[in-house]
Amino acid sequence: MSHAIELDDVHVSLGGSHVLQGVSFSVPTGGVTALLGRNGVGKTTTLRAVMGLAAHTGVVRVLGHDTRGLAVHRIARLGVGYVPEDRDVFAGLTVAENLRLAERVEAPAYDDAFALFPDLAARVRQRAGSLSGGQQQMLAIARVLLNRWPLLVVDEPSKGLAPKLVGEVAEALARVATTSTILLVEQNLAVVRRLAERMVVLDHGRVVHQGPVGDLDDPDLTRQLLGVAAAR
Amino acid sequence: MTIFLSLTFAGLALGAVYFLAASGLSLIYGLMDILNFAHGMFMTLGAYAGWDLATHLPASTPSAVTFALEVLAAVAGGALAALLTEVVFIRPLYGKPLSQVLVTIGLDLAVVALLLGGFGANSLSLPVPLWFLEATHVGSVLLPNADFVALVGGVVVLVALEWFLRRTRFGIVIRAGVENREMVSALGVDVGRAFTLVFVIGGAMAGLAGLLYTAVFTGDLLSPLQGDGLLIFAFIVVVIGGLGSIRGSAVAAVVVGLLQDYANYYGGQHAGFSEIGNLSTVLLLALVLEIRPRGLFGRAT
Predict the structure, then answer these.
(1) CB–CB of B186 and A72 under 8 A?
(2) Over 60: is that where the pLDDT of A115 sits?
(3) Whole-angstrom Cα distance, residue A42 to residue A20?
């Protein structure tokens, strides 16, 4: 099985804190792999290390390329779309400008993006800062769909969204997952169950469990790894 | 009323030059987090480039043509100085903001010293058309022609810059980068190219500011220290307007220009306090920092 992402003994220190302490795991090509764990165990930092946004030691391979020495924009151009935790849409830019900024291919797939999020098509001239939280999340996802990248790195897409919108975003990601590999950080276990086939669990900056998402069916394991009851 | 209108026009002209000096500074800080103390050097070198070109033209060259070429030389000189500064001195120091600040201060001091050594401390005279020294009646008000030139220069650059920032892909990259540079990179955009471009644009505008300041406000006299004098007001305008905001710089430049002229006339002439224009500007800065620390158009952080 080929791998879309491989991390080998990745360490990250932030402000004197050893956040990642030798993280090693692989994300197989195709489908959704969930990266789980309690708050503050290093999930977002792991995604940032994949994107080159967090200085790290160890080896990160993205779509078969060793990313050591590569600038962030070069890593993205390998074919990775990044949806950050707080969406990070550009508030002062319009929806159209946010999307235009993300174009990296000759024929951006606007049809795909607007088919998934028709609400955005009606708001192309609106400033992203005036969109609702859900609309901003849709824009953040639409932004990385334009290039039909083979790999998406998505950080907590349901965070702060109303339940109805969580369902819409999950549905959109499920459709995207049919054509792209997704590494997903998500606290909402119902969304994880719906989208992911595999999971990697972090604790204190280390991988403590890897396996199929079906492992969440074991309530004792779920409570032990995540500190929460398993959701159905 | 006539005096008030004259003062307003002169304040707008001064504001136009402040805008030219400040807008590049604001963009550079907004995108790159660099307090660029070499910006005064760009202004001085732009003005010297214009002067140097003018001295090499045949005496028969029409004065309007000479001035147009001075403008082009100033823009090119400022842009070239900024390009070299970014590529040679700033780029190797990305991620080291203190080192970047120190290197820009050092560069500025070195260039001023070189100009003093090469051209002497005495001011040089920049050739300008005689028309600049005349005035035009607008209704009952007599307005200096040179002020029109500064005002037109400021407005043309403001319109061109707004067009560039809103209509071109590079402009979108720069506006997005001012908001969140890291995310722009994560979308696959080479922000380093935008850095260089912003420096070049800022340098070009600074060069034009240096030349227009000489042609309009110093009695055509050019000195190695004038860029640093202008830089202080540029920094004040940038902070009042909001770091990274071009519209903020434009509004703040006009406010500062008007305030200085009104205060100098009404305070200076009638109260006998000659430096009250500068003092009022600093007081305005303090007031804005107290009430709205992010500036008039700055983003909350």
Answers:
(1) yes
(2) yes
(3) 6
